[in-house]
């Protein structure tokens, strides 16, 4: 597998809905943040997920994992760094680190693994335009503009 | 419009995910409880929503409303009473009361209004089998079995 | 009651998690968008909700309402315009219009009504610093920067 | 570490809110099902999580993992089997298998690991009454009543 070494930083602001009565972000919400971040990465490399679906492909999650290092709560701005290290074949792996804006110690780290499937959920190889987008942006480290206030 | 006067009591147990840092059920969650309750009512009158979709119809929500009277929190068992008072035509209205099991004072009350549409989101009249199911169960007041522990 | 006539435009991008199998944003999600938008308005007028809570106040929702005019789906950028028309007393009302970026026809419109309460959920009058923030920004119509890609 | 070998089967019915436009249960929802299932197990062994919190303890998730084997969708009844294999010390691990009622092939499998902490999020050992509850029910394999219709 070829090396891709692509990363992208996306930001979300924690809303009240995401907190629980322990005053922390409920653990499953990080997987929504991961999704928002990977969709943003795909838009950035001009391979938006909605386009992939229009072309008859889907990328269902086949495995997900998260470690929770520190708590986050309401109105925290979280930076989600998504990395694609290796070229995908039948599956693609994305790694995520969640930080509070301006801090170093991670709040959470995780990964998701996705299969490429067609509209009937049959496994397929990663579509060529998707692979080309990845290779075209290999080695890049993108960082989005900060969120509005 | 004919009188239907049908009611049904469905139960949900509040999970941690539904609480927020105010230690109450987050306000939008009640609309999920309403959905669970109306789907249960439709199963009870042998007109399950999944069947309606299979027959080419959908019932998107066109209006939703909720008043919050008292707080509910983690592990509360909530009884959602759903009522259909009148025969629908192009639209159907459902009314909901949420109680804590064994108490009288409502936690929340609300309603949803839905359009009957076809698979292209074009408005249609309520399908005949759906109307027949409503009339067959008119005047009934159903109450589900309690939840497991 | 005095006139406030304050408005603010906040943007969210619809994530996959928010869609349902009808390929539309699930109806309760609009209340999360309303929350994100009103928290952004409060930050904009320098009365962030987290500060209000630190000062011992809360603003639980006592009533919520939404009309759904058109469908929205994955990767749509939605503009949520929040308006505060009148000075609050024991309660505050916020009105919301949801548009797709660059379009006129609303996707959804709604409102929420909130009580001012203390940490024991006892009703109180709107705190003075909050009222001053509202008056200081009365007549303003704020519009956030667009979201990153 | 002592052997606990405790299992419990809890059921959830998939609501429309949990589906996404791929017509499957959105991947993060399984972590909510896991939570509902582990809270049910704790109620079953007379160590309900709400009681644990009242006694000044919390069990935040420090790691979560899920593999997705097959799709589930609206109105499926899912059986979540939760297992506690080993005695916890500072951390407790729970394993989950999600099945469709009446089928053998798993829909999803996963685990969560939790720390015992006090109200200030400081790590503590598992409280004695919790350990006693686990030991008292060691070797048991509980199965809840089916859900109402």
Search tags:
homotetramer; 149 residues; alpha+beta; Thiol Ester Dehydrase, Chain A; six-stranded mixed β-sheet; two-stranded antiparallel sheet; 21% helix
Describe the structure.
The structure is a homotetramer of 149-residue chains. Chain A has 149 residues and is α+β, with helices and mostly antiparallel strands. The first copy, chain A, has one domain: Thiol Ester Dehydrase, Chain A (Roll), CATH 3.10.129. Chain A is built from three helices and eight strands; from the N terminus they run E-H-H-E-E-E-E-E-E-H-E. In chain A, the strands form two sheets. A six-stranded mixed sheet of chain A has the order 3-6-5-4-1-8. Chain A has a two-stranded antiparallel sheet with strand order 2-7. In chain A, strand 5 (91-100) and strand 6 (108-115) form a beta hairpin. Chain A is globular, with a radius of gyration of 16 Å. The interface between A and C is medium-sized, with 23 and 23 residues. Strand 3 (61-68) of chain A pairs antiparallel with strand 3 (61-68) of chain D.
**Multimeric status of the protein:** homotetramer
Top-tier CATH class of chain A: Alpha Beta
Helix and strand content put the structural class of chain A at alpha+beta
Radius of gyration of chain A: 16 Å
Q: Characterize the overall form of chain A.
A: globular
End-to-end span of chain A in angstroms?
41 Å
Q: How are the strands ordered across the major sheet of chain A? A: 3-6-5-4-1-8
CATH superfamily of chain A: Hotdog Thioesterase
The greatest interface between two protein chains, and residues involved on each side, is:
A-C, 23 and 23 residues
* Number of structural units classed as domains of chain A: 1
Tally of DSSP β-strands of chain A: 8
Number of helices of chain A: 3
Helix content of chain A: 10-25%
Architecture (CATH level 2) name of chain A? Roll
Question: pLDDT average of chain A, as an integer?
Answer: 97
Helix and strand run of chain A: EHHEEEEEEHE
**CATH fold descriptor of chain A:** Thiol Ester Dehydrase, Chain A
